[in-house]
Amino acid sequence: MEFTKEKARIAYYNEEGIMLAEITFPAVNKNTVNINHTFVDESLRGQGIAGKLMQAAAQYLDESGKKVLPTCSYAVGWFAKHPEYSHLLIDGSEE
Predict the structure, then answer these.
(1) Running DSSP on this structure, what letter comes out for residue 3?
(2) Does residue 94 carry a pLDDT above 50?
(3) CATH number, domain with residue 78
(4) In angstroms, how far is the first alpha carbon of the chain from the final one?
(5) Reported confidence tier of residue 48, pLDDT bands at 50, 70, 90
(6) Is residue 93 part of a domain?
(7) Cα torsion at 28, 90, 50, 60 (round to 10°)?
(8) What is the pLDDT of residue 59?
(9) In 2, 7, 54, 79, which residue has its Cα 20 to 30 A from 66's Cα atom?
(10) Record's PANTHER family (predicted)?
């Protein structure tokens, strides 16, 4: 499964070009993004797609030198389960 990386989101499109999964992370400021939305189409749920999207986003944002403010409940839970990416999280004073 290949994801399409865009400026403020990573998405999965099927062969017909229909978006079936995405994670969005608009900029808060120059150095910080807000992971505010995760979506997986009903047809793909239960296959770990949201976790793969989060992994791809975390790697992409880490490579981009960005900090993360997760407000999406899925993203908050994912970061809690993946402490290896805790260095990406802002502490609140950096907003």
Answers:
(1) P
(2) no
(3) 3.40.630.30
(4) 34
(5) very high
(6) no
(7) 70
(8) 96
(9) 2
(10) BSR4717 PROTEIN, PROTEIN NATD1
